Structure formats: C-alpha cells, structure tokens
Amino acid sequence: MLQLKKKTDMRDKWNTIVLAAVVTIFALSLIRYPQQSLEASIRGLNMWWEVVFPSLLPFFIVSELLIGVGVVRLLGVLLEPLMRPLFNVPGVGGFVWAMGMASGYPSGAKLTARLYQEKQLSLIEAERLSTFTNSSNPLFIFGAVSIGFFHNPHLGIIFALSHYIGNVLVGIMMRFHRTREEKKRPQTKPYTFSVRSAFHALHETRLKNRQPLGKLLGDAIRSSVQTLLMIGGFIILFSVINKLLYLIHATQYIAQLLQHAFSLFQLPKELGIPFISGIFEITLGSQMISEVNEASLLQKAVVTSFILSFGGFSVQAQVASILSEANIRFRPFFVARILHGMFSAFFTYVLWAPLYVRTHPVNETKGAVPTFLVKQAPLWLHECFQLLSKYGPLVTLLSLCVYIMLLNKKAVWKK
C-alpha cells in the first residue's frame, strides 16, 4: 500500500513538472513570436465569428427547447427499438445522434451531457453515446473540405460515406463498453413499443419542467451562448498552439518520427507536417493536405478522412470540457476517435475504386483537379457559405447582445 502511494506521488510530481514545462514553453513562444501568434489568433477568431457561432447556435437553442418541452423523451420512447439493440443506449440517443450529424462537433457531447444531467441516461450509457454522436457535419465535409480545399465536390461523397459508416461501426463496437458493470445492476422491465406511452412521456416531462416559454427560451439561449463562448476560446487557443509548434519546428520533428509509419502505408513524407497540423486542428490540416503536390489524390483523401474522424485536439478539448462538467469520462471518447479515424481511412481506400475511379478515372492519379468540377457543386452549398460569410458576424453580435441582456436580467432578479 505504501509503495503504491509512493508511485502515485511520484507520478503526480512528474505530471506537475511536465505541465509546468509545457506552459512555460508556450508562454515563451508567445513572447518570441508575438506577430505570428496574433495572426493565428485572429484566424481562429474569424472562424468562430463567421462560421462556428452562427451555424451552431440555432441547433443548440432548438435542442435545449426540445429537451425542455419533452419532445426528446417522446423520440426516446419511439427510437428505443433501434438504439437499444444496435448501440445499447436508450432511444433518446437517436435524437443526439441525428443532431450531432446535422450540426457537427461538439453538439453530440453537449446533448449527451445535458441528457445525463436530466437523468435520461446512466453514466455508462452517456459514455457510450458520446463516442459515436460527435462527427463532422455534411456542410463542412462537402462545402469546406471537398469544394473549398480540394475543389472537387465528388470527393465529398467518399468523405461522407467513410465518415458516417465508420461512426456507426464505432457505436456498434462501443455498445460493449462496461457491460459487465451493467449486469450487476437490477434489470429494467422489457421494452414494449407504444405510441401512447411516448406521448405520455412527453406530457410528464412537460409537467415536470413547467416553465413559461420566455423563461425556457432565455435559459436555452444563455446555455447555448456559454457553450459557444467556450468553444471559441478553444478554437483560438489551438490555432495559436498549432502556429507556434510550426514556428519552433516541433511539427517538423514529430513529422520526421512519423516517416516510418507513413512508409508502411505507402504515404509520402510530405504529408507528415499537414497530418500533424490536422491532429491539432482539422480545418488547417485538411487545407494543408489538399495543397501537397507530391501525393496522389487517393493518398490525400485517406489522410484527410482520418483527420476528419479523429477531430483534432482542438475539438477533443472542447468535448473534454463539456463532458467534465457532467462528470462523464473522456477516455472512451478519445479511444473512439482513434478507431473512427482508422475506420474512415480504411473505407476511403475501399470505396475509392467503385465510387470515384470508375466515374472519374482521369483525376485519380494526381492531386490536380480540373476546375470545371467546381461548377458541378450543389448551388445550396455555395449559397450557405456566402450567407454565413456575409451575415454570420451579425448573427454572432446580436446573439451576444441578447446573452448580455439575459445575464443582466438574471442578476437583477437575484437581487
């Protein structure tokens, strides 16, 4: 017992030293490269200001309202026959899964934590649900990556299929997470499908959370904006960290260590630095991968699929912060992201020949893509990005003003 305590104390001391050293190096790097840090910070702020905030805020607010009025409970009862056998989670997980795919990172984590706090999920079920309900949304996959970076809308089909198929496989694998502990608990009554029971659950939830619509809406806005402010901080922070790691040549050193692993998969070493950048922040990494001329389009697609599914440390830090507030463990989510990345990369390679080469054989060999393919992109994708770029900052500013008014009103009520 005493020896175990000594080992724990020693490990804690080493963790303290490492953490202090990392923070000190980060602070010194900020002092050494102030201009580059400012530019990276502005880049992260623009991404959050123009795209992330206005695109996620409606999903967050609507999700909070749906939970508050009991619609999620209704969907949970109806979706139980699908979610329980497939993923070993309650039917409410179907709502989280759908909203996570539609709105992207880190919506799944936020909704999982919210439902756990509402006691609609057990701790083990929340850990399972968080592993496969956080994914890139279709707008980012098709619009930003395939069209914006690769100038090839047809790649979006490969990215999306491999991404979401991999996500389903992760959910099926994680259904066995901590099943032994669940067997020790008392068994619940077997589920019987009933529409009447679903509407009864909706009514019970509404009666339990009997609040005026204005109060419900105000709480939804306040909670959503608080989460998005935290997400913005992480985006800016990791944008700066990514830039500083490149400036102090840490990215290059790590990329050299990965050369042997890349050679096993017949990937060129030029993809090393973009891959490391993508491990920290998926947007920058995907853009850098698309600009590597030494790699074939297939090679770039495989690496990009892994990064999109891994999520990057920026996204994972956001998820870790959200899950920690609800005391949900982060480790299962991290393990699932590695599995998701491997599955997505594998399915990109498998689906390449039947879905891309047979229809676009000319573009398969090298990274260059004919410009006429951009014109074949769906019109709504271009319009969505134009609207976000034009009106996104205005939506963000107005939402922050409403958030400040709600906080001020809440403070007045407390007095």
Short account of what is shown:
Helices cover 79% and strands 0% of the residues. The protein is built from 19 helices and no strands.
Protein architecture, described:
This is Sporulation integral membrane protein YlbJ. InterPro entries: Gate_dom, Spore_IM_YlbJ. Residues 51-143, 228-323 form the Nucleoside transporter/FeoB GTPase Gate domain. The protein is mainly α and 415 residues long. It has helices spanning 2-32, 34-69, 71-87, 92-103, 107-117, 123-132, 138-149, 155-174, 179-183, 195-208, 213-247, 250-257, 259-264, 272-280, 282-290, 297-310, 312-325, 331-357, 379-414. Helix 14 (272-280) runs antiparallel to helix 15 (282-290). Residues 363-377 have low confidence and may be disordered.
